Amino acid sequence: MKRINVIGTSGSGKSHFSRRLAQKLDFPCIEMDAVFWLPNWEHLDTEDFLAKLKSLMEQETWVLDGNQSKTNALKWQYVDTIVWLDYGFFHTFKQILIRSFKRSWSKQENWEGTGNIESFRRNFFSSESVILWMLQNYWKTKRKYTKLFAGELSNSVRLVRIKSPKQAELFLANA
């Protein structure tokens, strides 16, 4: 494991898990959202995003946190291991509610230098809500990754499917 992509639906804990895994392995952690998002909730256009991501993925080792489908063709050129945090719906929903509440309350910047701060309005009463996004995409993401793990990558990449926080802790302990 030298180039690891941690995937999962919004709220699954990808960023937290990725940071812990990177720290344990002494690898850089690349958070795709931190690369993608600009100040005022603007984002890089696809071409610039992929170019910036490519330059980061040319390092010898890393843990990449993120899902964005538009990055798949690029990621799959580099990745040797994919870790899928595939927690149950209710666990993930609980996690995203807690995270959204904490971020709204703390007013802590999501990605350094962006000034992007989550609010109760944005998280709970907006069409841009990450909670709404999770509710709309949980099952679609699960189907997509089930297919991915049964498909062509299964022959060339180590695939790890983690279905519980207990399994996640065990994986981290043995990494």
From TrEMBL:
Keywords: Kinase, Transferase. The keyword Signal does not apply. The keyword Repeat does not apply. SUPFAM superfamilies: P-loop containing nucleoside triphosphate hydrolases. One of its GO terms (molecular function) is kinase activity. PANTHER family: TOXIN (PTHR37816:SF1), YALI0E33011P (PTHR37816). This is Adenylate kinase.
